[in-house]
Design goal:
Its cofactor is Mg(2+). By secondary structure, the protein is α/β, with parallel strands linked by helices. 17% of the residues lie in helices and 29% in strands. It is built from four helices and 31 strands.
């Protein structure tokens, strides 16, 4: 047999934005106050085991029947006359007692976020609370209207979150870091690191790095003091401390040792058409511009790979590698002086 539930609905107070903006804690005192003054005489004597009386503001968010039954069980186990559900996640007050069912907990009694208008109101209210919490933590957010931050994001004291930034998931922005115009998801931005106009997902960036503009990191681990410049993509790779890749490079499925320089236009060729392969580059290497490193491949510590080289075999530490077409120079008349030039 189902437990009898009597719901005492209090009139709504305030306008739409006000009621949507209330926190759970705002409901409990009002419900208790109304019960004590207006409804106490109507409920009558409390008789444990004969039903449940609920004092519920009409304008508060949805409270389920399961919530009420759980709270009533607590009331009875502790032999209390009344209990504030506001302490457990809602603002209703539940009393063990008798009575007939006056109203059931159905959706029309509650404010819903269906529709773009109400959703926008609720979203912006939650956004204000998230930013307020980050303010209290000491983060610097100059323009709250242009940033979008999940409530799971952590920003330490002194972290700067500048305009047009989106922070999602379990992202952490460490003290002194600056993030501007970037999307960062489930990633860590290290102390004093600067990120500008980047797309970063599932990555960890060490302290004192510069990332961007227009860099992309996916599943990357970047050490301290690194430079990941414009139009550089790092995917599934680990960069040691002090690695520099200033522009226009793809580093995929690789491990790069500390202090190595990756030249402009370098490509870690990790895909053979069927599966991905890994590349290991040692510490203190110099990889020149327009180099192709065809995986699987290992480049030893201190190696120098000349610009324009396509590397297909392992390179020993300290070696100088060059592999490109030999340049030839031949005399030629300027096109406009040739007798066979077209007119």
């Amino acid at each position: 047999m189902r437990e009898k539930i009597v719901v005492w609905l209090l009139p709504a107070e305030g306008g739409e934005r006000e009621l949507l903006g209330r926190k759970v804690a705002d409901y409990a005192p009002r419900a208790l106050r109304a019960f004590e003054t207006r409804y106490a005489g109507s409920v009558g004597e409390i008789r444990a085991g004969e039903g449940i009386d609920v004092v519920l503001p009409l304008d508060m968010p949805l409270v389920t029947e399961e919530d009420i039954l759980r709270a009533a069980a607590t009331v009875r186990s502790k032999k209390l006359g009344a209990m504030g559900l506001g302490e457990r996640g809602s603002g209703a007050f539940v009393l063990a007692g008798g009575g007939e069912i006056r109203s059931r907990l159905v959706l029309p009694h509650f404010v819903k976020t269906e529709g773009a208008k109400n959703f926008r109101i609720v979203y912006n209210l939650m956004k204000e609370r998230v930013i307020a919490a980050l303010d209290e933590a000491g983060a610097v957010i100059p323009d709250a209207s242009t940033v979008f931050i999940d409530d799971t994001v952590t920003a330490e004291e002194g972290a700067e979150i500048l305009p047009f930034t989106v922070l999602r998931g379990r992202t952490v922005v460490r003290a002194g870091a600056r993030v501007m115009g970037s999307l960062v998801e489930d990633s860590v931005v290290g102390e004093r690191t600067e990120v500008t106009a980047c797309h970063i997902v599932g990555s960890e960036i060490g302290a004192d790095c510069t990332v961007g503009p227009f860099a992309r990191l996916r599943g990357a681990r970047v050490g301290k003091g690194c430079r990941v410049g414009d139009f550089v993509e790092v995917k599934g790779s680990a960069l040691g401390d002090g690695v520099k890749s200033a522009h226009l490079a793809y580093i995929g499925d690789a491990v790069v040792g500390e202090g190595t320089n990756i030249g402009c236009g370098t490509v870690f060729c990790n895909y053979d058409g069927r599966k991905k392969h890994r590349t290991e580059v040692g510490s203190g290497c110099f990889i020149g511009a327009n180099v192709n490193l065809v995986a699987p491949l290992a480049v030893g510590d201190g190696a120098f790979v000349a610009a324009g080289t396509t590397v297909t075999r392992d390179v020993e530490g300290g070696e100088f590698v060059i592999g490109r077409a030999r340049q030839e120079s031949k005399r030629s008349s300027p096109p406009h002086t040739r007798t066979d030039a077209r007119t």
